[in-house]
User: Fold these one by one.
Assistant:
Number 1:
Amino acid sequence: MDASSTPYDSSFPTANVAYDQNPIYAYVKSDSDGYSNCGVFDGVTTVYYDDEEDLLHYPFSYGDSFTDNLHSNFTSGIDFERSGSITVEADAWGNGVR
């Protein structure tokens, strides 16, 4: 759904898509450059990525790869920090239809 149609969209300013997984909302940014994780709201805790987690870059085909840094600070009873990097590699191909 459109992220702006959800009650928590202001907490995820770069997101344009939301997944309603009642009571959890997952927020992503999807555009012509790729697909990124912006964060989640679980009804209590907001996990917002100040450095989004890129999950896919477009175009992306066999042999391509990328590494992306990610970072989030959030509080859920105690303070948490999630940071690191993700490496995505296209090491196979197909159309996904069987």
Number 2:
Amino acid sequence: MKVAILVAPRDFKDETVSRLQLFFGKNDIESQIVSLTTKPCAGYHGAVVKPAMDASSIEAGAFDLLLIADGPGVESLKLYDYRPLLDVVRAFHENSRKLAGIGNGIKVLAKANVIKDTRIAKTDGETERMVLLYRGKPSDDFVVSDGSIITASSVDNVPDLVAALLKQ
């Protein structure tokens, strides 16, 4: 299995990315960091990652899963309004590839209009409003796998998200 972990160019949640890489590595899942740029990206707590590629150039067939990581950068850079990224998310959905979102990264899935009638993990107020706006079904569960979409409330739920992915 091959996973693309999308991070904001700045202020992504460092602990989410490091936990994802740890759990993917333990389960022999190949992962690559992607972003809106190929320049080094700085996390909210100072971690720096070098993306393997620009997210807008990803082809849906190249990866089995596109995972949107959370963090303040999702909001400050409004990743959910970046049209080329939304097009990539839709391409994954249309090609029956898996999509995942953690925390406020779920907003990107919502804005790409791929969550209609899909159960979504428990989120905060603003993310939940966007989920409702795009006809997703908010849940009280912290990790939800519904069809090709997997969502998690926060970094604390990464082990369960990876387990849900492996179960599919």
Number 3:
Amino acid sequence: MALSENQKKSIEATIKTCLRNKFLNYKPESNHMPFHFRLLGKDRMALYSFIQSINTTFGSSIFEPVAVALAESRFMRAESQYVVGNSINQGYQAEIQRIMNDLSLGEDPNKLGEIESILAAKIDEKENRLMTVKVDLFVEAYDGSIFLFDLKTAKPNISNFKDFKQTLLLWAGIALTQNPNAKVNSLIAIPYNPYNPEPYQRWTMKGMLDLKHELKVAEEFWDFLGGDGAYNDLLDCFERAGIELRPEVDQHFAKCKNSY
């Protein structure tokens, strides 16, 4: 199901608001780079600096609010930077560590089985305090299922996959501490496929992540939030927003150039 015209307008408005906020809060670096300036020109360096700044914060400043706006059309509730909690059942935490140890030794990941073993590990009501844990995107379905997404860059560092997995299990453990009956799903989301038209290189995550239950890439992610066809409609929304904002972008670049 493609997005309705009202949904498209809402998404485009969100994109434009996010970028305009970036304009307001962006402070260009004033580093003196004489070789770069002579070779490439101050105008190009200003453009490069701004694009680098957007890339650095694209997830939190654009993808997260757009994801919320998209999910609100199909889910009961959607929030970015959602607080999962700050404590975990002691038995759950110990079981998560056991799971991580087994995965490190070559056991195949099985998220559904891991959730079952975490729940079975509850010995008493004792909880361990943690620093307050937030997730990038929280989505609650009408059947009560909750989805906790960690939005990653298009090419996450392979060396961090173990940390990613532990984070997903920890989120699940915290949510289950609050409600052992919760239908909790914790996943990695990658907003686009940098290898397109080739398939995303999922093999790089195999061994730590249960690819069926812990990873959504590009169309899988956006269509999950907004329904079939949402990804392509979303790309069109970004294009239309970009065309409308182009004069403002050019004006902003002109200001940035003068700061070098």
Number 4:
Amino acid sequence: MKQITIGLLGAALMLTGCKKAPAPSQATAGMKNMQGMPGMPAAGADTSGVPLDRTEGARLGITFARAAERPVKSSVRAVGILKYAEPNLVYVNARVGGWVERLYADYVGKRVQQGEPLLALYSPDLVSAQEEYLLARRLKDDTLAASARRRLALWDIPDDQIDSLETRGSVTRTLLLRAPRSGEVTEKMVIEGQAVRAGDNLFQIADARVLWVDVAIFEQDAAAVRVGTAATITVDALPGRSFRGSVTFIYPQLDEKTRTLTARVAVENGDGALRPGMYATAALATAGRRGVSVPLEAVLPTGTKDLVFVNRGDGRFVPREVRVGLRGDSLVEIVEGLRPGDEVVASATFLLDSESNLGAAIQGLMLQMGMGLNMGGMRMPAKEGARRP
């Protein structure tokens, strides 16, 4: 490549002294006379493209690759805020009115296990229902006993408490409300001594082992994201860590203002390191499309077209216009212009583009100026024995 560059630059310098262009026949003869100059191609040689020595190219950072048929994968990055998964939220309420005599879950954020007591509720109606049940058992009235037991069950009194009532033979003053699932108390709407009515929500409990993050997908990436798409979640608060997730739902409507589609990603949070409210970045791994592809840097955009430099087979690389398709993380699909197995320049294509343009410009000037015949203001050496003027 150094040899052709020196030859082309030398020809350009010689052309600067020319003033007059000769006839086309003279130009052809002039081209033949220039073929013996250092760096100029031999007669009849195909000079299209750029000759490239691989050893020299490696020193300049030029690499090579072959077009191949393979999946062109890309990852879509989006951001959102972590929140509790809605199916893992539960309200605890009172099925019977009364007063809170003892509060066990006494602050927001407290971790509770399934079946753990949350509060002790005194209810006159509950005391009456227990006495009715015990009376029916003493009278051996199975119908009345079954009716009283069913009433206690409808008030959400567990079977073990009803059985202990029968074994003990005496009523209990309070009813223990227990946690229906393990999790954290995210809302607390009651304090000790407070009167509550049937149906009042007293606590909200959330399980954080699985969190949701709603991410905004740009309109052009929406077709590549589907339910089930795998996702990798990272947060700034935990550098170096990543969490697995997947797209579980895609909202049906596009946001007209931001031109984005919202996708819901469920994130595994077994150790509880992730916290609701954290900003999260989701990298969604799309399935990609299979096709002929080359590395991204192999394609040189010129503004009006895309070029790749293809090995002609004799060590010269010629520019070829291609039509590109899907662009992935490291590959670009070539819809038209390349076949599997074609060798292309994979990096530093701008160097070959500059060399190719320079060579084309010099050759055009040589044809127009007719080098070797009339060099304008340049004095040509006299032949041996010629008469001097």
